[in-house]
Amino acid sequence: MRKSLNFIKSTIVSVTATTLLLVLVSCNSSKKEKEATFDKVAAMQAIEKENKIFTDAFNKGDTINAVNGYAADAKFMPPNQKAASGRKDIQSTLAGFIKAGAGGLSIKPVEVWGDENMLTVEEEWSMTDKDGKEVDRGKALELWKMEDGKWKLFRDIFNSDLPCMAPPPSK
Predict the structure, then answer these.
(1) Which of 15, 34, 36, 171 has its CA 20 to 30 A from that of 81?
(2) pLDDT digit string (tens) for 125-146?
């Protein structure tokens, strides 16, 4: 009887251990399969395409088409001012940059991380005036999310590489 009880206990332990091992292996292989199917090169190419659409529109002063690259719940976080939330506020902020004399924006993606739902993109950018003279340059980190089958800007934050302007002289 005792041998029979020990056999049953060892069988239960073996079956439980095997089941746990199979569950762990299947969870891990699913993650590896997901990583293997995501194409970072294609994602970077898609971001470059979206950046070209954005910069072409921005450089023409077309804030409507420029803002179409942002997700419906996007935030645009330029330096030294409050974040703009949503396309309408972002469009207004972009129009302010254009009215202030921004003439040419160029954006170059440097590196991308993420998966098929959300990407983080490190970028370098430069801004020229209407005469083509560089007036600013810097770096950016952007979050892009998949929305309606396209990559859309979800969070956009950047800053300048140039030194801060000196304050005006006091009177």
Answers:
(1) 171
(2) 999 988 889 999 999 999 999 9
